[in-house]
Design brief:
By secondary structure, the protein is α+β, with helices and mostly antiparallel strands. It contains four helices and twelve strands; from the N terminus they run E-H-E-E-H-E-E-E-E-H-H-E-E-E-E-E.
Length: 211
């Protein structure tokens, strides 16, 4: 996969989305930057920061993804693979539903997935070394470039959703002490039921992980 590296970008996610809309980039492709000053987070929040932290986006064609992966499951899928990579590096990171990376009870990063034409774009921001955006840092010695390489290596194996979900289903129990924002309301995950596509049943209503 081609990797485009920059010293600074407003947003890796916006850059990829714009270039794909223009038709000036070929997929699969990844973008990484040392600094990001207008990054895109969930619920239109920003995710910005400086050198040492991880700011990257990856674009893959939908047909490259596992046949059993629905778009509603993509956020968990891309996030959980990164979580596995961080675990293999010795960091006890876990994934809070549906797309936040946590260390113990503190958020250290997150992902956002967006579709453009027949391409899925996943943006990832992680505080590797520096506390930023009001969140804790992992205090990790690995460089962003090496982490991206490890992630792409794991992602390009394209494990089946069934395999990812079987592991995430166990880890989801850690999310129950937290809440999530749904339609501008904060909802507890204490009594949520996790469905096979990664969606939740909360208060009798089905909620999808479309972020």
């Amino acid at each position: 996969m081609e990797i485009l590296s920059f010293n600074s970008l407003p947003s890796t996610q916006k850059y990829l989305l714009e270039k794909l809309e223009e038709g000036t980039l070929q997929v699969p492709v990844a973008v990484i930057t040392s600094e990001q000053n207008a990054g895109v987070g969930s619920r239109e929040n920003s995710w910005s920061g400086g050198e040492g932290n991880f700011f990257a986006s990856v674009a893959v064609e939908l047909e490259m993804l596992p046949k059993d992966l629905s778009l509603s499951s993509a956020s968990i899928y891309f996030s959980f693979i990164m979580k596995q990579v961080l675990n293999e590096l010795g960091h006890e990171v876990w994934l809070k539903w549906p797309n936040d990376f946590y260390l113990d009870e503190d958020k250290i990063g997150g992902t956002i997935t967006q579709k453009v034409k027949n391409v899925l774009v996943c943006g990832i921001g992680i505080n590797l070394k520096n506390t930023q955006n009001g969140y804790r840092a992992l205090q990790c010695d690995i460089t962003p470039e090496v982490l991206l390489g490890n992630y792409l290596g794991a992602l390009e194996e394209f494990p089946k959703w069934k395999q990812i979900f079987s592991e995430y289903e166990v880890e989801f129990e850690l999310s129950r002490k937290f809440s999530v924002h749904i339609e501008n309301y904060q909802k507890s995950l204490a009594d949520a039921s996790l469905c096979g596509d990664g969606s939740l049943i909360i208060g009798g209503k089905r909620v999808y992980s479309l972020r």
